[in-house]
Amino acid sequence: MIGLNILMTGSECTPFIKTGGLADVLGSLPEALRDEGEDVRVVLPKYQEISEEWKLQMQPLFQMNVTLGWRNQYAGIEMIEHNGVTIYFIDNEYYFKRSNLYGYGDEAERFVFFNRAVMEMIKQLEWTPDVIHCHDWQSGLIPVFLHTHYKDDPVFEHMKTVFTIHNLKYQGIFSDEVLYDLMEMDERMMSPEGLEFYGDINFMKGALNFADRITTVSETYAKEIQTPYYGENLDGVLRSKADRLIGIVNGINVNDYDPLKDEALAFSYRSSLTKKCHNKLWLQKHLGLPVRSDVPMIGIVSRLVEQKGFDLIARIIDELLDTEDIQLVVLGTGDNDYEQMFEWAQGKYPEKMSANILFSESFSRQVYAASDMFLMPSRFEPCGIGQLIALRYLSVPIVRETGGLADTVHSYNEQTGDGNGFTFTNYNAHDMLFTIRRSLELYQDKESWESLIKNITKSQFPWKYSANRYREVYTETME
Ligand code: GLC
C-alpha cells in the first residue's frame, strides 16, 4: 500500500520550540508514522524564539499573501528536513517576531493568520495531504476553513481532518468580531453548530464541530471530558460527538529518552538499579544534599501550576519532610506561590529538599535518572509525559488516577506482584501522603522493590503502537 500524506499542524514542536507536552508529541509522532511508511510533514509558525542554529538551516520555498478581512499580509514559507521529516515554517515578523510564544492581546489575529496561511500554503505546494492532523485550538480553524472558504476548491476536495485535544482547558475564546472581521464569516457560524460559545466564539469548538475525527491523548481523558467536571463547558458538544471521539495515549521517543545512551547522565544504565544509583549519588553531590545511597529520592519535574496537583503537595509538604527520611528534588518553574513553597521547604529542610526553580532539559534527565520515585498528583492530566519518561528511567511513578496517568500507571499489588507504580483516586492530600508512604515502605523491602522495577522494564510506551492507532484513524476518515 502506498503511504498516506499527512500534514501535522500545531503551535509547538521539539526540538524547534517548546513550552509544553504538545511540543513533544509533534516532535516525535511524525517520525514514528514515517517509520510505518507514511509521508508526514509538519507546519509551524516561525517564531523569533527558534534558535539561530535552526533558522540558519531553513530554506526559503516561496512567498504569498494571506487575506484576513481587509488586511493583506505577507507570508514566507521556509523548510527544514529534520530526521527525515519535512518541517515547514510560516514566516511573518509582524505576528511571530515576539519574545514569547503566547500572551499577547492579538492572539486571535495571529492564529487566524496562521490557519489561513496553512490553507494557502497547501494550495501552492506540489504535495497534497490526504489528512490534515491539527493539534489544539491554535490550529482549530483549519477544519472550519475546509468546510467554508475552501470547500469548492478542487485542491481540498478529498482532504480530511483529524483534530487532537491535548488540553481542553485552553480553547481559544474570543469576541465574535474575530469571526466577522478576521475570518470573513457571517452570522451562520455564530450558532451552536459553528463556533458560538456563550456569546463569544471558540476555536476549539469550531474544530470539534467540523473535524472528521476528534482524538485526545488517552482513553480515560476521552471519557472524562464528556463529563461536566472535566468538560470545561464543552462536555455537551463532546457527548454529541462521542461516535467520532477516540482516545489514543501518547508514546515517547525511546531512542531519545534512553538511560543507556543519554548524554546528560553521568552514569548509563538500562535495567540495573546499582548502576542507576550512581546517578543518585552524583546528583546529591551536585545539589549539596547528603550523599547516601539508602535514602529514597522523590523527583518532581513539572510546570509548577495548579493542574499538576501542587495544592495537594502544599498541604502536606511540611508533614512529609518532617516525618520521613527522604530527599525531594523539584525542577520546574511556574506560579509564584508554588515556587516559594519549595524554596521555603528547602530553607527549613536543607538536607531533604532541593528546589530548582528553572528548567533545563539535561537537568530534567538527571532527575529522572537519579530519583527512585516520581511524583505526579495531577488534578487532571490529558496524557502526561513525565510518568512515561520516569518509567523509562526506572523511577517509580506515584500518580493520581486521572486521564493518561490512570491509563499508564497501575498500582502495585503486594499480593499478586502486579503493577508498575503507586496510585490514588481522590484528589485528596492525605490520600496522596498515604500513597507516598506506601511506596517508601515498599522501598525498604528490596526484593519486592526489584520485582516492581522488573514490571516497569516491561511496561514502556514507545510510539509504535499509538502511531498505528493514528494510522487506523486516518484511514477511517478516508473510507
Ligand atoms: C498537554 C497535556 C498533557 C499531555 C500533553 C501532550 O500538555 O496537559 O497531559 O501529555 O499535552 O499530549
Core attributes:
six-stranded parallel sheet, about 475 residues, alpha/beta, Rossmann fold, 18 helices, 2 domains, binds alpha-D-glucopyranose, nine-stranded mixed sheet
Give structural notes:
With 479 residues, the chain is α/β, with parallel strands linked by helices. The protein folds into two domains: 5-251 and 464-478, Glycogen Phosphorylase B (Rossmann fold), CATH 3.40.50.2000; 273-461, Glycogen Phosphorylase B (Rossmann fold, 3-Layer(aba) Sandwich), CATH 3.40.50. The protein is 38% helix and 19% strand. The protein has 18 helices and 18 strands. It has helices spanning 21-35, 52-55, 93-96, 107-124, 141-146, 177-182, 203-210, 219-224, 235-240, 273-287, 310-323, 336-348, 361-370, 386-392, 403-408, 429-444, 446-458, 464-478; strands at residues 5-9, 39-45, 59-68, 71-82, 85-91, 131-135, 160-165, 173-174, 196-197, 200-202, 213-216, 245-247, 297-301, 327-331, 353-356, 373-376, 396-400, 422-424. Strands 3-4-5-2-1-6-7-11-12 form a nine-stranded mixed β-sheet, sandwiched between helices. It has a six-stranded parallel β-sheet with strand order 15-14-13-16-17-18, sandwiched between helices. The chain has a three-stranded antiparallel β-sheet with strand order 8-10-9. Helix 10 (273-287) packs across helix 13. The two termini are 15 Å apart. The mean pLDDT is 97. Bound molecules: alpha-D-glucopyranose (GLC). Residues 20-22, 25, 166-167, 217, 250, 381-385, 404 line the site of alpha-D-glucopyranose. Alpha-D-glucopyranose (GLC) binds next to helix 1.
